[in-house]
Amino acid sequence: MGIVDQLSEDFYSVIRTHHVLVFAALDVDAVCCCKMLQYLFKVDDVQYTLVPVTGKEELQKEYLGHVGQVKVVVLINCGGGINILELLEPEDDVNFYILDSQRPLELDNVYNQDQVQIVVHDKEDFDFPQFDDIYASDMESEREEDYYSDEESGVEPNNKKRKTEYSYERRKRKHIWKKKRQEIMFKYKELSYHGTSVSYIMFQLALQISRGSNEVIWWAIIGLTEQLLYEKIDRDTYVSHLHELQPHVLRLNRSEEDSSSVNRMKIAFENELRLVTYRHWTFYESLCHSDYTSCRFKSWTMKGQKKLLEFLADMGIPLTQSKQKFLAMDVQIRDSLKEWMIESARKFGLDDITYGSFVAQIGYKHYFCAADIVYCVSALLEDNVKSSSGFLAALDALTRDNLDKIMEGLEIAKQQQIAIVSQVRNFTDMHQVVCAGPFIYAYVDESPPNSKWFFNPITLGKLARHLRDT
User: Fold this and answer.
1) DSSP string covering 128-171
2) Which of 8, 98, 126, 228 has the most Cβ atoms closer than 10 angstroms to its Cβ?
């Protein structure tokens, strides 16, 4: 079985001696993983080529453009669910290492130990079907067909009857095996879900080779937070990984050396509000356009706006203050806002208004929670027409010195949230939401401005979740 959980010995020590071709999907977790891998490659002077891809066709096209140039290929959040050897048809001396959080994994990749290795977290459990239940009968049939084709000439009459009976029994066994295999494969592929974040796996590798740093753990936190915000993992799984990261955060942020540096990053644990970029927006707009509060207040309706104003009044925040930029609010209100909101949230049924997370302070002025960077990177990934341009912009936003790119991404993220809430309002006002048994669906108009936002998978997924919760 081609499963690699010894990250340093069986993965990194092997690839670092080659020129590495890296394919990466366009999601936040993959971007964070690539950023870490770039950091490790730079430290160890490893040559590599990074290519972002959007699907199988682009993966196949880009690989053909590099045939003969590389012998080691790393796939990040792509390739795990397809038969990679069948798609790319590589030479026998090309090795593939797949880091993919999407499940289930393609069994042809799992059981191909010669060329394909699946890189996973050592604590993740898998329940793969047995090899004999999936492949054994096919191999047995091929051997038997070869055997009888060789002995077909010169068969005695007495043996013909025995051969016919045996052939019937063989076909019967094969039919039973195929039916069982079909049931096993249906059960295995029935549900899709996500496993351990690939950026979290890359952080574990960095620790094993003594390359851990504040930036590396921050990228791992961002990748993990993306999985929670976009509902790829449940809250319990998120909290479990968060507890594993917390001791490393404390260790790396205990020292007060270089505390006067304007570019120093300091990471700390906080209970974070479920509001979109409220530190870089107005508190009022964030309440109106965050998924959690918008869906519960129904902020796009007159009744919802009235309830939202009651909520602000209960908190004791003047409307004029709530409509100012967060950093322009009175210091007393700004410092007490989280405490006041938690108290008032209980009265208005917002019992799940906070979640555990980490925040990063860069220098004296800039303060970002992990969710801010998730929304920023997601926005930059989908803002550019060319996938490579968006991917490079997203990578730049993960550099702590590139604050202009972070602020640019946050502005785009705000526009996306406004467009999502506006579209949901249109759906409900025009009664365009159709219930079809266990599903609901609605049609998105292809005309601008919708075409700018909702032709992209990340934003479309956010729209679907917002509509579901409305």
Assistant:
1) PPPHIIIIIHHHHHHHHHHHHHHH-TT--HHHHHHHHHHHHHHH
2) 98
